[in-house]
Batch of 4 targets.
Target 1
Amino acid sequence: MKKFIVSFLVLISFLGSEYSYSQNNIQTESQLAFNYFRDKEYRPASSLFFNLHKITRSRTYFNYYIDCLIQLEDYQEAEKSIKKEIKKNPDDRSFLIDLGFVYKMAGESDQSLAQYNQVLKKMVPVRSEITSIANAFVRKREYEFAVKTYHIGRKIMNQEHLFHMELATIFLSQRDFEKMVAEYLLALSVDPTQIKTVENHLQSALLQDINSSLDPILKNQLLQKIQTETENLSFKELLQWYFMQKKQFQAAFTQARSIDLIGKEDGSRLLSLASAARTNDDFKTALECYQHVVDKGSSSPNYLNARVGDLETRYLLLQKQNSTSKSDWIELSGRYKKFFSEENTALQNSSVLIQYAHINSFFLNQSAESIELLEKALASSGLSQQNRSELKLELADIKLFTNEKWDAILLYSQIEKSNKNNTIGFEAKFKKAKVSYFMGELKWAKAQLDALKGSTSKLIANDAIFLSQLISDNTTLDTSYTAMKIYAEAEFLMYQRKDSLALLKLDELLKNHPGHSLTDEVYFLKYEIFIKANKTEQALLALSKIIEEHPYETLAPKALFTQGELLQKLNETEKAMENYKNIVTEYSDSIYSVEARKKLNDLRK
């Protein structure tokens, strides 16, 4: 009995040491094996994978072991090893596929086909089993046999519409878009609720479709389905989605409107499309979407959202235009006023109120009325912290516009204090720093800007870095800061929409400080003033000054790119292409280089 106990303890000790060895060394050996495999050192890799499989029984290590043997053309050993696994795992048909693949690599195609066909003949009507076999074929890139597997699987399970998604994925791997799309659409015919899954798969396919050969196939098959299966709205939804991927928002609107009418929807689909169209500057389509929802009447759940969206879109449209007349802003202001008079809850919408105040102050010289409106809104109860801060931020902006700088600073400080470590607080801090900059307090402004470099808002952090760098770059040699202060005054005049006075300031800087490091910046500001006033020739000339006289400054590639886009709008394609070529060749490290190359390729088509 004593001898038996000793023997048992020795055995336990041995097994424990083997287990300990496996746990402590498996990761190291695995990493080493994969490194050998990556470096195409298949002999040492095969030994390590063999040992790892022996210890762990992991199928992954076995697969790599067989791959190593195939690379070493040791087909006999590969066949021998696989047959051992087949004996140990008679129900796992993937080993039979492995064996067939080894025969194929060894040039024994008849044996390979026989092995594959044997797998297909032995298939049982179990979905998981069929999928497992097909996946094993896919891993070997035996796509035709994977397709056969699913087709046979349908027959033996007596279910014609199984495996549509799986087959589509295989056809994508083969770049057979015709069959791929057909399978996805058949999947929707059977189960329209799979629309999101199909969209996700097609999005991946569209990204891989470099030559846009998928586009006409998808569009044509969808149109056929829409005509033949009129009651299945998923095809219209998919066509709308496709048009949105291609940023063809007008075509998407046609589908969305049809779905909304047939499905008797509440307009949510149209609001979503309007938002996407507006983000991509297709204001016309966005306005049509909003109008369609408004036409449903005030009892519609999205009526108010549509009216707000309509106003915001018109506001953005005028802001984006280079040149707008006062009458345009008067007309839009009237729309806001009508909205406030017709909707009882309109004044509680801070974004609409802010836009209305901004229009009246910055474009219609009615700052006193705007200030009164905002102060009245701020005095009301029930405002959230976010809405209160947004209203106060606009009030501060208007105070700054009317040259009440200290009032603006006070308001910005209040917002910053009540919104620490969030976006609106950082925005207020940045605007407060900019007031200091406008006032010529450059050192103090720079200190505040530097504190914002770590802002969680990337946009604000970038703006702070840019302005801080501008101050730093242009005050090193000019210790009096005179030119920088004049430049800041010109920017403030532009903020106040006093562009003619800003131009005088900029001309004063150029005259009194010839050759100053700010010169290229001055010309870019002049460009912005001219383009806003629709003075195209003068705008082009200002950019040319930077390109020709300051080619080594950081603004040179930006000026080239901006001028190229302007020339494109004027249909001066050859000149635009010269600009883009210049960027690609002379400023290859610039952030504009990649975009310039794209523009160049598009213009060459």
Target 2
Amino acid sequence: MIIFEQMRALYIVIILAFCFSGRLLAQDNELLLARQYNANGEPQKALEIYQKLYKQNNENYYSVYINTLLNLKKFDEAESITKKLIRRHPDDHQYAIMLGNIYTQGGNMAKADAIYDDLIKSLPADQGEIAALASQFYQSANIDYAIKIFQQGRKLLKNDNMFTYELINLYRFKRDKISLTDEYLNFLPQNPNFINQAENAFSNVYEGSADYDMLKTALLRRIQKDPQQTIYADLLTWQYLQQKEFDLALNQALALSRRQNDDGNSIYDLCRTFIANEAYDEAIRGYEYIISKGKTSSLYIPSKIELINTKNLKVTSGKYLPEDLLGLEKDYNDLLTEFGRNSSTAFAMQKLANLQAFKLHKLKDAQKLLEETTRLNDIRPNLLADCKLDLGDIYLLNNQPWEATLLYSQVEKDFPATAVGQDALFRNAKMAYYTGDFTWAKGQLDVLKVATSQLIANDALNLLLLIQDNLAADSSGAALKVYARADLQIFAQNPEKAVMILDSIGKKFPNNALDDDIMMSKSRILIQQKDYAGAVPLLKKIVEEHPADLWADDAVFMLGDIYENRLNDKTTARNYYQKIITDYPGSLWINEARKRFRVLRGDKPDAS
């Protein structure tokens, strides 16, 4: 009898389980059907299912039911249901927040605000409950009241430093620049390690000079109130950098460094930023400040070297006055006098020789100095190779081609199948081209057009095509030899001589095939002289008159680069990059043009 009763009970449990699971399965099917109705634009049919499910299982289907009512603008029904749940669960604030949302969507903002304000007034002085309520407002997309909850929480807990991370994230999400700025400026003095995070946040939300001026005003006010707080001074320096007010950035950093009497590390790092932005004068002033601290400073020698390197960058970038050249030459000589001429200063000897050869045109002095450099003991192999290649160039400019080719060949032999060796081979080929030995040059260039160094391969291919195209038009190569002499003057940085030779070609050889080549050479001279506006018409003329010739795609890409980086016309730049993609799909510039086009179009970095 007992066994029978047990079996009967087990049977009932199994029957109930099957019924319950069957009921769940039916509810799941109905839920899928309701979703399908919504997807098909039939919300009324979906509502009927949600209403049925809500009555069967009450609160589990509240969210989908209430949202469907709101979509159908049945605000009274939604209000009635929600008020019942508020009475049933007075401590569960999600229903009060939803009731406020119902009033908001129904256009009754006053009622919604009254509900939200009551929640704030009844807020307990409990950190967990404050955070939970703010989170519920955030999840219902009510950012403003989430912020008010945290602000009220600070008052209740009597702690203005509470909920800083949460408020920063909310202000950033809302793009509330003023509040975000104030929050970070209150937070940073006790948490200076977060300065980079603050700078990134400002960069993401600030939209122009007005926003940075707002930051500057706030910082200056705080610095005046608390001059000993260095984090504000650091942030002010960053603000000046964003505005590209490099002189003011340096002045601010120097003032802070002097006040702290530090070793100048922050100035040394700042100088790198100046150099990256081509603010060479500010970098020079920064390095000079560090050097003025004396030889006992750990940064004395590095700053001395970087000072000269920066002056060299200023000269090679074209942003210099004639007297800067002589000043830089003196700096190199002073460095060599102070530290001697040895393997440790060989880099300075090399740079001084290049300055003398290509800027001061003191070819004999440059040759003598590099010959001395290549005889030094213990010089690094790669640096020795670079010095030999540069010395070969100077031999070429000094009309000593035989000595030049010996050095090029020596480096090629010492560094087989490397970028250095290929560079040596290319210089040998160019020397043959400059001196009119086009047959030998073609042989070398034919090998180099598949070089592992893409830059050398591209340059070799262009020079090979230049020679082939013009010899096909004139087998004697008479006009090409004159053009090669002009090219040599461009290499020697004698632009006036180069232009005179280029202008003579049309007069001596009226039917030459070098028209686009001459325009490209003149364009490059103008670009070398920073006359970008002057280069544009020549490059456009190449594109218009020689769209299928050697330099057409180069001219298109160069126009894009000039408009993007020099003339600040992003729209025109994008059009030229697009022209490479559509008109010159086989161009060597295709990948770079496609990448730049996408950036200017506003694509994300991972866009395909």
Target 3
Amino acid sequence: MKEMKEKIGIVDTLEERKPYITRKQEKGQEIPLACDNNSLAGAISQRACVYSGARVVLNPVTDAVHLVHGPIGCAGYTWDIRGAKSSGIETNRTSFSTDMKELDVVFGGEKKLSSAIDELVGLYHPPVVFVYSTCIVGIIGDDLESVCKTASQKHNIPVIPVKSEGFKGNKSDGYKAACDALKRLIKRPSEEDIKKKGPRVPETIKPKINILGDFNVAGDVWLVKPLFEQMGIEVIVSLTGDSTTKAISRAAEADLNLVQCSGSMTYLAKWMQAEYGIPYLNASFFGIEDISLALRRTADYFGSEKMKERAEQILEAEINRIMPEISRVRERVKGKKAAIYMGGPAKALTLIKGFDELGMEVVIIGTQTGKKEDYEQISYSVRDGTVIVDDANPLELAELLIRQKADLMVAGVKERFIAYKLGIAFCDFNHDRVVEFEGFDGFVNFAREVDASISSPVWKAVRQRELIPEAMESEKKSGRIKKVAVEERISRENCAKECKGMLLKPEFLHQKSEAAVESQV
């Protein structure tokens, strides 16, 4: 009984949430973690809705018109949601909405939607229009399928309904809705091309691949594609980073799919395998180990000795080029503790390896959409005692960061201010970053950002917090205090020199009224 309390009593949270937070156990023990369920009511989940999941997958299709059928707030919330870069047309950077009002809810919005499609096609002449359904559309029952079919026939382009009513599931269901929309764009290759596909391609034929689940955030895919091209491989399309309608239509010509974001694209990869006979491999393009593995596994699949030799040459040259800088950063950050909280498990897993390459220890790791097999793999990759959490909320994350004494948090923009308020360094690994993290140069960028975040002199001028063991013990005995007891450590050093001449007054930064509120984590 005592052992069970230790496993589930890691933070002060709702009783129903305790099974979703655990520690890495000794080898051979199954982690007792609940996951892959809908968020609990009242738990303030960090997850996004179905509609948001669909938007993050489809929005990087650069030449498409993305029309949100619903209130203006849904379009505003997801405008330019991916931060994906484009090498050509950028129609996707403009957000469109039918801006449904009260009368549209009462009388239906189909006519308004039809008029909006006509207007946008006339203005932009896009090769495809994606029409997203929102919660209100699902409630009033507008027939998107019928409106889109009529518009498609009228304008002679694909007008594709994305069935993404926010209330009907979670972000993972949005990924599936997006993949169902992409299926309609992928054209079937000729029977002759299908017969040519196989595990081994002759040296005289240039093999083709697709990269699935890379969204070209900050230009990531531009650092990855050249590596495969140097190996003699044609990258048809990255789904969906910097992709066009024409490139997506050719996706079925590929000999192999490389799936980076397993949560968003495994569904599509399995469909392409069943429909067109295209196998897939899971891959990651972050960190030295995972990039090396991706290139080697791809070369092994095609069975070309020349390709294998070229892959080794690329790896040797690139690793030798970046290692001096990686080694310099490693000396500065080794031994520091990192917390990881990602939307999908693939990013979380690859970050574990990346931090290991920098000599850092992962003390917290969590995802929003991980499944049991994902957490088992995560458990194999982290050290004993590491906290593993599914669908965490801000209060849980804040307490975990304090308890585990994290020096750095790597997550998305929603978690940024949790870390900052606790005086903990932060690195954005999600949609809003502006620096590439994939490929060899991307890993150097990541290492530098981690170093800059942890080593910033600003942390000498902000509040640091720790749990007070004595207070925690008295809390258990008395049963009267329910809040987590914390101690604030305020550095009063004069760090003006390191902060480039800006003298910060501790009395001004740490007013008692502010501290009293924020200390109650």
Target 4
Amino acid sequence: MTMPDLEQALDALAGRVSSLREARTAYPADLAPTLDAALAELDTAAELLAEAREALQKAPKRAGGKKDGTQRELKLLRQVFRAFPVPVIVLDGGGVVRRINPETSQLLGSPDGYLVGRSFPLLVDVSRRAAFRSHLTAVLQTGQPAAFETRLAHQGRTHTVQLALTRMTMPGEPQQMVAAVALPTEVQLPEPGARRPEQSDGALLLAAAKRQDLLVKMANLLLEEETLLRPVALPRATRLLAAEWADWVVADMVRGGVLRRSVVVAPKNHPLGDLVRQVESADPAGSQVVMQVLERGSGVVQEMLDDDSLLGFCADGPLLTAMGAGSMLSVPIGSGDGVLTLVRAHDRRPFTLADLAVMQEVGLQLGLAVRAQTSFQSRSRAADALSASVAPRTLPDVPGYEAAAVYHPGASVGAEFYDVFPVSSGWGFALGGAVGKGEEAASVSAMVRGGLRVLGVWESDPDLVMRKVNEALVAQGTGMFVMAVAGFVKGREIRLSSAGHHPAALLQADGAVRFAAGGGVPLGLAPEAETSVERLTVAVGETLVLYSEGLISSRNDRGEPYGEERLADVLGRCAGQSPSTVVKALEADRHAFSGGQVWDEIVILALRGV
């Protein structure tokens, strides 16, 4: 084929492709004929490439020698390649982009040449990368072309394309290449405001304003009194970043000279499951990028991830692969206090150097807040000691059961307690709290908790233990009363005694939720206790959940209480899950409901039959 013939064929192909685009826009409900025609044009494009290569190879060489002939061939091939009216990418054997034509740059929304030197599989949907690499290898080894459908994502755009791979030999290249022709069958454009900042001055100003707004929000959050008095700076800051800036946020802090994973915030729509736990349990010392940032004291940004192993590994392989990561940045927290890592999915706009600059400032602010928080906490050690006396540091192993709990302190010294402890017949548990605040209420709760522990060693009936604790509390004359529930475990049966406490919830294997009777009169009101007694059977796969007044009385911005109905709805969605997942789900739902505000202590204790 001569060059005029090739140019004429390219012009004709460009006209037909333009007509197909118009047909796709005009008849979106009838795409089948358009797709069939597009596939036919795809075959035509591949044939034209092959004929162009053959024509170049047969072209007469100049007398100047082989080198001049090769240069002329390369120049002609580049001209043909850039004029090609469909998206074409030239890949080497490893899948790295070596050439990209303007049609491809327009399709993907990236500047000309931006993707050269980057790994093309990073643009492919995570679930289909392995299949793409297999097709690429097969084409290189057998020389047989391959065509298949896949999804590409870049710069906030998502494309479903028909991808055709053809092996080719390029002049001056020692290895064989693969030409990838991509015809989009479905395109999802980025949402308004998701354009690259470089596209317009207005978008650039909008992005700068968003970064400034983040700094203001972060400063206000970290300077709140509660943030300084309680260990909530890190969780609150990471939740803010996850809500507005990233899909995953990971904070690793130096504790006792050792770097430990402290906070992991997953995407909002991501289920609480194995992947979240694997990210939480991964050793940050195994992360190349985290250790680099900690050692050098400066942040890094990976606009496109060429190495999925940078954040370490989990049971399913590289963490970043499992997380569906497309870009990542890491910045130091304070001065050697830790590392903050943000990850965005491959179908979102990647992080930029401007994002890195604002996150460097966020990391500095967060480090100052953590140090100030430590200073404030050291001045209230007596209050911390009282709070620690109403909750165990760890939960013991109860034969036949798996246990988990969560405790969030309120705005002042707390009075809620929970415990799991040995009794004469096996194991017991309790949850409750004095009605009141401050050190006196905390000391009364600690006394009740201790009384239940001590008396449980001699008594096998939780109701008898509750009655004796009531006598002791009345005799002390504190004038305070305590709402509490206690249970003793015997095989699959649990005997409950309630003194004015909220009823326990039993989550069954099929998702149904049944509440215990609850009730009774709080301890300390009268010399003769009035309790409510009940026996429950907790089968394998069922979970018994006890909770504090602070959970169901939490309110949203309209003043509505969280309530037991919402509690039951959340529990129903946790059927078959571990106790730790159950308490985290309740904690996360309550946080979302109340906008993160915590007035009274939040205590949740879950026991699951295993």
